[in-house]
Amino acid sequence: MKGYSPQALLRLNERYSIFCQLIEGDALPDHRFTFSAKDNLCTTEFQARAGSRILEGYRPPFDATPVHRMRQEGGLLIGKTNMDEFGFGTFSTNSAFGVPRNPFDEERACGGSSGGAAAAACLIPGHVSLGVSTGGSIACPASFCGVVGLTPTYGRVSRYGLIDYGNSLDKVGLLSRTVKDLSHFLPVISGPDPKDPTSCVQPPLDLNHSREGPLALPTECLEGLAPAVKEALLRALDKLSVHLGVEVHEISMPSLRFAMPAYYVIATTEASTNLARYCGMRFGVPEREYHQHFNDYFSGVRSEQFGDEAKRRILLGTFCRMVGFRNKYYLKALGVRDLVLEEYKKVLADHSFIVSPTMPFLPPRFDEISKMRPIEMYRADFLTIPPNLTGLPHISVPCGYEGGLPIGLQLVAPHWEEGGLIKTAEVWERHFHYHFPEVSP
Ligand code: GLN
Question: If one looks up domain 6-255+337-431 in CATH, what number appears?
Fold first, then answer.
């Protein structure tokens, strides 16, 4: 981060809208490294609004565990990164606090929902961003912004202090320019935390453990790819087989087709219960008329303060968990999740990793996004959703460039095998040259 004063960061932010809050002052205090936290992670010195107006003014009295651990390591938190409201989105265009712009082309999206986190990792050398993924929010923006994004196994990193989207899906992870940074910081943020029981059942993190065996390439992941993405993938696989000496097996995983609908049922169901707490009584929106009927009061606040996508998710999720529909949708989706996991386990018993592109197309322009229907946006995540639905660790690394825009490659490993992912990604990094845009702040 050498050379980036708070003023330089401010200028960078005026151009790219990466941060929704930024450190102030004349010079940065002493630090070993700088890091940023996605806006849905609680920290004491900034507001935590999760990209939503409904949390305006909420200043947590505590740090989220991953933030706390980064500070203990000597990190300086320089800001809260911009994101889709509560994590609802694929392009970070659903933020209430401006839309982050892609460092490779300002007319294009950063990806989402950790768009600001990926852009910060790309634009600030040596910087490491804490991101959060529910259905692909680390891998997608990492791919679109040409950086490395690691989503650990569900439960590896404590979720204490994270503003929940879908509790059975949320994972805190890392984004940076290099795999080396991730291998340094993953052990820092990982490990049991008594404040999050889910994190307490994990086996130790072993970064020396590598995985041997052929790579599996599901044919389902080759459907509907933009030609440039498919070509970059095939070139990368060629390179991988030469330098790693591994074979690539084309296989079929039919259950992957059902992961996307199951994910949106589970994610919106859990989100709709999580969002019920934002009614304008405890968080945000001060100075209101409290003499109304409670229903009118809550509806007024929620209608005004939630964005359109949040409202859509509340409606979808509430519908899925209504009496009479619960078994038909939510419980069925949980069954699908089990099926997908079974299939992953079967394939990973004979293969080292499952490989695919991270996103099916190049980072889109904002005018293209504005014409997309919600279902088209949801479909864009068909490659990142399956590992997220099943809590499997995965990494996205840059694997090619087309017209100056980055393309990402995704590797998926069995539960708790982040070490193998990092080792293989390190080998990749030794043989593939990453590009970063030259920006003078
Ligand atoms: N785009 C997906 C969604 O909107 C995933 C986002 C996320 O991981 N937070 O749910």
Answer: 3.90.1300.10
